[in-house]
Amino acid sequence: MNYLDELRFSVKYPFTELAKRIVSEMKISFDNLDPVFIDRAIQRINQDVKGGVLLNANSRLTRVLEADLVSFPVSKIIVSLSPDSFLKKKFVSGEANALRKFLFVEKDEVLNSLALELGIKIVGGKVHYKSYLKFIPPDESYKLVYQDLSSGYIRVNRSTLVELITTAFSRKLESDISRKPKGLEHLSVYLSEVSIERKQSINYSGPVDADAFPPCMKKLLADASAGVHLGHNARFALAAFLVNVGLDEDKIIDVFRGQDNFNERLTRYHVEYIMGKKGSGSKRLPPSCDKMKVYGLCFNPDNLCKRIKNPLGYYKAKIRRRNYHGSKGMAER
Amino acid sequence: MDPKVWLRDEFSEYYKKHKVESPPMINRREFGVGIEKKIDYRHLSFKDDNALNAYLRINTPLYISYSAAYYEFPGATPMIAKNLLSADLIFDFDMGDVMSDVPKFPRPEDLDLVKREVVKLIEDFLIPDFGFSKDEILVFFSGSKGYHIHIRSDVVQDMDQRSRMEIVDYVSGIMNPRFFVKVVGKSIRGPTPGMGGWHGKIARELLDTLSLGSPVEMSRRLGIGLSVVNRLIERKEQVVAGIKSGVWDQAPVSKNTWYSILQSIVAGRGVKLDRNVTIDMARLIRLPMSLHGDSGLIVARVKNIDTFKPLDDAIVFDRDYVPVDVPRNLNIYLGGDQEIRPGEQELPRYLAVYLVAKGGAVPVDRS
Ligand code: SF4
Predict the structure, then answer these.
(1) Which residues of chain B neighbour A298 with C-beta distances below 8 Å?
(2) % residues pLDDT > 70 (chain B)
């Protein structure tokens, strides 16, 4: 590859060794950064929080490509200096979206080598189950039980491999930005130039006690508030659970506001359907624990889970205990 | 004489004569012990196998368990302070998972039902699908009503809870048949016998069943009525050829019938075990080579599962005679079928221990 091709590759895949080498050879001083890089980095973060950074990976101009490339480490530093976990999640998901687009049209050999670089054990188009499980995408269809597994390896199709690579990349990025780099605190001033749309946070005080939610619902709720994409079953389960514990309709709708394809009218329709205001006229229950397991949504069950059949039963049992034990606040474990 | 005191004396004598081999990295494991219950105390730790064996001889619990997990500080509380480093992969099989009424004195046939699940796990899943070798799969008799599998290989050590959950869901076949049989345009597509994982298992099982001569047996295995079976048999050749090439609409059955057939196949082939033990990395499991307080049998290492006979091979107490009082007539199957008549009598020590542990006899003090 000539320098231009290397640069283009690195803009698309800034996490690779090649990209890191190019950046280091550029001998950039982070104490005294070229404003071009800073501007591009701020723009990058702002694009990421809106859905995904737009990169000029096909440009012929070295200058443009270099700015795009360097904006990756610089934006990482700036984001890592923020205490805001919502910003961090949004940044990661924006970067992941951008990466996914490149991967979809990438050649198979390149996908393979990118996978290897991110620690995915892949041999002849088959992924070792351990790597697969480490980076398993959230949708039900990716559950191990549906995979073509033999002798420790899973035959994966392109789109699955793309998801695995994207997840591996996101994890790495998450961990990178969870640590504050030393000596670069001065870059935090640029955080004021990042604009992020915030949904108002949901208040569960009053009759609904989120502490008593079962582990699966705590997880779904945390994912939903972080804007992690939820599949259809996950949305139904969470909405039906929240309806049944008595959360207001509007607050339930707010829970789903962070979803990438959020549509208020449709969401309201679904919630009202579950509430029995639409359709059959009777309230719908969340799926049973058995169904939750089939959907891959039963997460981290605890001891109390063994005694209940529906996530709602967990909540009721927890509340009953809490009332019984009064202020002693018995801990379940 | 108080049965628990007597039993603990017997156990202590045993532990004085036999050293329990400690699990690898014993100083990283948490232990739990019990006399009244299976676990009265946990958060114990031992620095080496001498410390463990001294504890067994002196304190002599009736039950002892250890953690599949390795911790930086195994004795610390609360759990979070232990700092989990890694964990073995465990599978737990119990009679309760394969039968609804668990007998107090199990027969060899009852324990064989559990063993069948163990064999299924090893031969249908762990070896062919996950690629474990036989040596990596350590099988233990639980000492009472089941079996445990411990896998201590490096590959499992740093797996998180979610991965373990996926593995146990895989082997137990927790699934939705819609992901195997799909309608594509006007055609129904299904797995082919050459595929890996559940896809191949389902297709092969189906072909197997179709080759059975008996429609009644077919209807039982596939969980469908005889009329549907007969329709399948009428077009058997086309159906078989279709399944071999992944085209499942050669059969005169609907998509929904396929779903229910799949459900029956999976129910038969999935492994019945206690899912939570695999998922919960902080679980304590019975310590290999220790005595089980419900039976006086040993938590024996099973080297050859086909020939292992728990009700013979896990006996460790001697055959000399000791006096006990048996209140009620009993039929038991330890070391062969035997009927025990009520009344004060002398019984071989291993039997006396078994009966006392199960509350079927009380020791008699003649000193
Ligand atoms: S067992 Fe039921 S309540 Fe508990 S985590 Fe699983 S689905 Fe939720």
Answers:
(1) 165
(2) 99
